[in-house]
Amino acid sequence: MKISKINRYLLFAGLALFLIFGHARADGNTLNVFPERIVLNLTQTPYNSQAVTWRTQKMGTSPRAQIIRVSEFSSLESTPKIFSARTSAVDLDKKTTVYHHSVVFNSLEPNVLYAYRVGDDQHFSEWNQFITASEKLKSFTFLYFGDIQNQIQSMCSRVFRTAFQKQPDAGFWLFAGDMVDNGDDDKEWKEFFNAMGWIPRTIPLMLLPGNHEYPDRRFIPLEDYKISKLWRPHFTLPENGPKDLEETVFSFEYQGVCFVMLNGNELIEKQAKWLEKILSKNRQHWVIVSIHQPVYSISKRRNRTDFQKFFVPVFDRFSVDLVLQGHDHAYSRTFPLRNNQRVPDKEKGTVYVISIAGPKFYPISSRYDHLMAKTGSREPLFQSIRVDADTLHYTSYNIMKQVYDSFEIHK
Ligand SMILES: [Fe+2]
Ligand SMILES: [Fe+2]
User: Fold this and answer.
1) Tens digits of per-residue pLDDT, 23-73?
2) Are 224 and 194 in the same domain?
3) Distance between CA atoms of 29 and 325, rounded to whole angstroms?
4) CA 159 to centroid of ligand 1, rounded, Å
5) Is a pLDDT exceeding 90 seen at residue 152?
6) Ligand 1 mean position, distance from CA 178 (Å)
7) How many whole angstroms from 310 Cα to the centroid of ligand 1?
8) What is residue 99's predicted lDDT score, i.e. its pLDDT?
9) Which phi and psi (to 5°) does residue 26 adopt?
């Protein structure tokens, strides 16, 4: 049979459409059943346990995770340990329900490389690996990021990739809040995980909520002012914070450092009392605190004098070394401070940093210029912080891997 030119064109067009849409549907089905948004979070004791959380779009049978030492992975005698998951169903928009699963691997050994995967009776993720922390003080590096928040996938992916290239062996990544613009918008969290790729499957994330992981308090009744319903399902963070603030306020220890993550959105006095208790029991060599809203804001419209009243006396009393913040969409670093003043040279004080990783920038106020060692930035940054026994080395990089700021704190 002879095929005319037009018929031949229609045949090719039909075949092309079939391939495109047929393929897309198959991809869609695949996405529906495989684990996605897999993320490691540190526990309070990262030398003997490790949390992992993931999501599925359908509820599978027996959601679980498997784990094995990498050194035993190919041995026929060893089989992976199985941990059953805790699952919570989350209603996204009254039409779509998704399932978040979490496991805390416990009884792990310090400083050991483990392989793990997550899934259910039908579908497992790929095998990933992570290394547990050391039990004692040991030199390590972690990365710290200010607000991501806007154009998360299109603009922030390269920040994450550059950060990973610069520091592939970071112990974990710390986020000081505002990872998204609208904490209840699942599409923005999708962008966050897309921008990160497989990085959080191998490097744990430690995050605290910014004001954008809460609703805008100007437009809602006080009783509705609560952390986004998507926060706790997505992450498995320590639950040792004050009551009602679990997984948004917490502390953890990592190789000689006590980290304290605070929530600048609510119950500040309650957190200050809790912080005092945590720091009075601390046996770690260094103390690093993180909070989203800055204690010494460089934004014209903001000034958290309540933080200066409630948190600063506790930071001073327990000699907090460093405070990592976000929110102001710019960069600043104070001199060492005590009692809201610059300390005389060589005396001990707390250094407060504000940084920004996303593409939105605010103008800077001169209100606290007398406290500032550096202010500026209209460019995305990430920070690499190496903690040794006697020195903390801090370096802020831009997207070209150029040093934007650096300093050291000596014990
Ligand atoms: Fe922000
Ligand atoms: Fe903010």
Assistant:
1) 333 334 444 579 999 999 999 999 999 999 999 999 999 999 999 999 999
2) yes
3) 41
4) 16
5) yes
6) 5
7) 23
8) 97
9) -60, -45
Question: What is the 3-state composition of the chain as percent helix, strand, coil, each rounded to the nearest 5?
Answer: 25, 30, 45
User: Closest-lying ligand to the alpha carbon of 213?
Assistant: 2
> How far is ligand 2, taken at its centre, from the CA of residue 15, in Å?
50
Phi-psi region of 198 (alpha: psi -120 to 50; beta: other; left: phi over 0): alpha
How many angstroms separate the alpha carbon of residue 296 from the centre of ligand 2?
Answer: 14
Looking up residue 179, the CATH number of its domain turns out to be 3.60.21.10
Mapping DSSP to helix (H, G, I), strand (E, B) and coil, where does residue 310 land? Answer: helix
Count H helices and E strands in the chain, helices first: 7, 23
| Ligand located closest to 330 CA | 1
Give the domain extent around 77: 36-131
Q: What's the pTM value of the predicted model, to 2 decimals?
A: 0.92
Domain end among 72, 104, 131: 131
Give yes or no: residues 375 and 292 share one domain. yes
pLDDT exceeds cutoff 70 at 1: no
| Segment 293-307, tens digit of pLDDT | 999 999 988 899 999
Report CA(204)–ligand 1 centroid distance (Å): 22
- φ/ψ of 289, rounded to 5, equals -110, 145
Least confident of 18-27, 54-63, 84-93, 331-340: 18-27
Distance between Cα 330 and ligand 1 center (Å): 10
Of the candidates 343, 282, 337, 286, the one whose C-alpha atom is nearest the C-alpha of residue 313 is 337
